[in-house]
Design goal:
Blueprint: H1 14-31, E1 33-37, H2 38-57, H3 60-69, H4 73-86, E2 95-103, E3 110-116, H5 126-133
Helix pairs in contact: 1-2, 2-3, 2-4
Length: 134
């Protein structure tokens, strides 16, 4: 029975899944908005929120905990300097998962956008794109 199991396996081995989630979280912090499948976005949301909470603590142990998961030092500096200050007065809910209406071409997997809340990255809607084409 699979009751009370929290980990989404994503059809991968444990090491492959860990590498995938590490890369997705790192790219989310780099670009502040990425497009991926809905299942991957929901799985990585948990780890991204946890890394931001560590960054808000700001001590050496928290920095080392984040470095265990996010191996890029430049991203860790961005996380502790800019993102921790941005979310200083927010208690959780640092990410947003938006379901897209389109599906991936190869296997029809549902797509989603995961982004950091209160980011400066502009969101293009389909109405804005239609106006630009005219």
């Amino acid at each position: 029975m699979r009751h009370r199991k929290r980990v989404k396996k994503l059809e991968r081995t444990a090491s492959h899944r860990r590498a995938l989630l590490r890369n997705l979280v790192t790219e989310l912090f780099r670009h502040e908005r990425i497009t991926t499948t809905l299942t991957k976005a929901k799985a990585m949301r948990r780890f991204a929120e946890r890394m931001i909470t560590f960054a808000k603590r700001g001590d050496l142990h928290a920095r080392r905990q984040v470095l265990r998961f996010v191996s890029n030092r430049a991203i860790v500096h961005k996380l502790f300097d800019t993102l921790a200050a941005r979310y200083a007065d927010r208690n959780g809910g640092y990410t947003r998962v938006i379901k897209l209406s389109k599906y991936r071409v190869g296997d029809a997997a549902p797509l989603a956008v995961i982004e950091l809340v209160d980011s400066d990255v502009a969101v293009k809607t389909s109405k804005e794109e239609a106006k630009k084409k005219e």
